[in-house]
Design goal:
By secondary structure, this protein is mainly alpha-helical. It folds into two domains: 3-98, no CATH class; 99-129, no CATH class. It is built from seven helices and two strands, in the order ααββααααα. The chain has helices spanning 3-23, 36-46, 63-73, 75-80, 84-96, 100-111, 114-125, and strands at residues 51-53, 60-62. A hairpin with a 6-residue loop joins β1 (51-53) and β2. α1 (3-23) packs across α5 (84-96) and α3 packs antiparallel against α5. The radius of gyration is 17 Å and the shape is globular.
Length: 129
């Protein structure tokens, strides 16, 4: 994680909040939580390659596609919050399959020493990696 990525994620979360408050795209129901554990496991284990289950319809889709669709919904809200560049940067990363979990896994596979992976992650966070 870098400071820039953390700031971009903050812009994404702010845009999500504005979308929820202004448009109320769905009303959560108790049944939505039936797929929550599955979706969480998939996201934690497979990242952008996860399979996402839409709680309302039960439809399956790649998490990457769901995130990109959500980003499209957020465009107007991100403009109002001056978060357009943040969303665009995140969109590019999602389209390319780049994320911090993948970066860490690649470093661990290459280095095979956790202290070295942590050192490189700290350098990256400080903008030196």
């Amino acid at each position: 994680l870098t400071v820039e990525r953390a700031a971009a994620l903050a812009g994404y979360v702010q845009s999500l909040g504005a979308w929820f408050l202004q448009e109320q795209p769905f009303v959560p129901t108790e049944d939505d939580y039936l797929v929550y554990t599955y979706n969480r496991f998939q996201a934690c284990r497979f990242g952008l390659d996860a399979v996402y289950v839409d709680p309302a319809t039960g439809d399956h889709m790649p998490l990457r596609d769901h995130i990109l669709m959500t980003m499209t919904e957020l465009e107007w809200h991100s403009e109002a919050l001056d978060a357009t560049r943040a969303i665009a940067a995140l969109r590019t990363d999602v389209e390319r399959g780049h994320n911090d979990a993948r970066w860490l896994r690649e470093r661990q596979a290459r280095e095979r020493m956790l202290p070295e992976v942590v050192r490189q992650a700290a350098l990256r966070f400080r903008g030196q990696g």
